[in-house]
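Morning, I've got a small favour to ask if you have a moment. I've dropped the whole record in just underneath, so have a look.
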Amino acid sequence: MPLQLYNTRTRTVEAFAPLREGEVRIYVCGLTPSAQAHLGHARSFLFFDVLRRYLAHRGYRVTYVQNVTDIDDRSIKAGIETGQDYHAIVEHFYAEFKESMRKLGILEYDFEPYATKYIGEIQQMIRELVDGGHAYVTRDGVYYRVSTFQNYGRLANRNVADLESGARIEVDENKEDPLDFALWKFAKPREPSWPFEPYGEGRPGWHIECSAMARALLDPPGVGFDIHGGGADLIFPHHENEIAQSEPLMAQPPMANFWVHGGLLLFDNRKMAKSLGNFEPLSDMLLRHDPQAIRWLFLQTGYRKVMNFTEDSIAAAALGLSKIKTAYRLALARRDADPPPQRSEFDEQMEAALDDDVNTAAALAVLYEFAATAPVERLRYWLTILGIEPNDSWVAEPVVELTAQFVGRLQAALDGEGAAGEIENLQPHEAIERVIAMRAEARRQKDWAGSDRLRDALQRSGIDLHDTKEGTTWTVVG
């Protein structure tokens, strides 16, 4: 079965086929580094990282472009208010963002265009739009004339009348229509600007930046590229406007064959915002939580769904990942006994899950099912496709300080089993071995329910058991 992807442009799940044989070209709207990135940004970019990896698995040559909006109203305002050069502000926040992406295991992009490096391409598009009657000049800038594009609103699935009455749009008495948007903003005091003949010195609007960079890097012939991605919050107005200003200049629309959008991330059922007091920079979040556990958490939910982040949810994700780490260590230990890696039901089910609109939640279920028996090479391979790279900490036996507090935790887990007193005053390792012995006796008596309860108590305390022909061994989870 070919890969199936939800296409916002058609609002259906479609079989994916590239426009060029064996090649996939992707443009993803990147960060506007006028402030610190947050976990919502990470969720979007982590998904496109998985999509990119899986397309490569399917044998495609992938060209991946993710831009940097290094000139915008907020970074300029911050520079004016602080007395810093806006470019220094952008570089600071973007460097922090890139380090966060490195920690999260995001692959480097094939192209990472900065908007200010494409001023010439932006100006050329604006000239073409003016010459074609799709844009006009006012006293404060050059604006796109929305009325000339009959498909405006199609991506957002809204008609122009609804957009005019309900959308957040720029209000400007110089515009012909409230929906018209700025392509070029004429220079203002203390703002960065570039010469632009014959219209006037100024700077580009946000939407034209992405159109120009995508055209320059992925679509010089004007026949479109394969996938344009971003968060669902970009559908309108940003992506709608990209289409409007790009397709009139194309030899063969649409601008992108597939439009793919990720869902919103909530924090304790609210949008993250400084005004709500729940904003935490991504860099700080990565100091508090394992980056791989954050990835695992996002993989548990379909990329198009609204997702709610809580401290309990990340703790549960870390526990789930720890089980895979334990399975990986055991697979590594039996490596010599495993048959040579070959395509198996494990591979087929992983592909079936990811072919289904990149259903990473289903892929994790497959991993849990096969992790105990899969050859370590196949387990590593599929974890890597999901962006989870086994590292040295996975291979080393976990070392955790098992103190008297551990015994107290284990006693609490055993409460109600009549076994808590059995381990009182024992050292941690002795306590674990004692409970294992009690479980073995329960199994000998065919008390399977009692055996399971003892095993569960150990697991709740952070201990995983492994039954082998030689006996039962244990490892610390994580």
About this structure: The longest helix spans residues 311-333. Residues 404-476 form one domain.
